[in-house]
Predict the structure.
Amino acid sequence: MARKKKIEYHSYTEGTVRYMSCMVCGNYERVGESAIGVKCSNCIMKTMMNQYPLEDKSYKPTGRPAGWHWMTEFVDKDGKVFHKGKEQPKLKGTLKPTKVTPPKKTKRRTKEEMLVAQYNKKKAALKKAVKKQKDFLNHELGDK
Ligand SMILES: [Zn+2]
């Protein structure tokens, strides 16, 4: 009997579901009928991670403020000049670095302050509504 040379990954069916051995780690993975080779989700994940490393691994803080590339002119610490995010090599070192001011920390309101503000807002809205109603009534009465 002639043996097939084609590599076939081991598979088996359970009811109507076909499982095939992962070509990397050997774990069984649910596959379609036509599958001839499969990578399990773990191995796919691993491949993905290698191809697209997580952001925090490749992320290097530039020290530039958020939105610096929208600025008409931004001068980096090392003297690089950018106009709307585009480096202007000719201008390098001719300008003072743009001062980066850290964003102001907004004072956190306490829960109570927030409730008071909410209450005042409601009160103002209510007052307005009442006034509107009164105006309407006055108008109606005045007409007659
Ligand atoms: Zn695998």
Remarks:
- Residues 22, 24-25, 27, 39-40, 42-43 surround zinc ion (CB under 6 Å).
- The mean pLDDT is 82.
- The two ends are 110 Å apart (CA to CA).
